[in-house]
Amino acid sequence: MDASSPPETRVRRRYRAFISYSHQDARRAAWLLLAGEEAVERHGLPVLGRVVDAQWAGVDPAQMGLGPVHAATPLINRHRLTFEDIDYWEINEAFAAQVLACLAAWQDEAYCRQALGLRKAMGAIDPQRLNVDGGSIGIGHPVGASGARIVLHLARVLALNGGRRGIATLCIGGGQGGAMLIERE
Hints:
The chain is α+β, with helices and mostly antiparallel strands. It has helices spanning 37-43, 67-78, 96-107, 109-116, 135-139, 146-161; strands spanning 8-11, 15-18, 50-58, 88-91, 165-172, 176-183. The strands form two sheets. It has a four-stranded mixed beta sheet, sandwiched between helices. The protein has a two-stranded antiparallel sheet with strand order 1-2.
């Protein structure tokens, strides 16, 4: 195996598991300009979307990876939305298993009751609406610019696919998470 090949582990005879945490070419950058209505009008700025709300959360570092669940859930509930109301999701893939853990947590009634204070499970996110271009493992996970890249990518996905509402989340080291609700007119 050469250095450009992903690390590989044999699992049984016919299956392979590839161990990966992000796209190897993380030399990326993103630039976002946040502006109010007055600045947009005065300077003729293009508008890709509107930041509706954001939420930050922290969990015990032993639950590292579930921060996005704890950030996105109150955001969704505060706006009286359901998963079906969200056209597209970008969940930052700090690790491949991390996204799977978030999806499992939202579907687990006991976790939603005990950890999130809900009466029932949040439900399942339609996989056709989640990380539609591959997420950070496929696109890149530029340290220090991941949030900007994810939000910008989500705005472009909404525009290209005629979506109105999306949520971008971040998994941040030490058990933190962030979520942002954006909309397009």
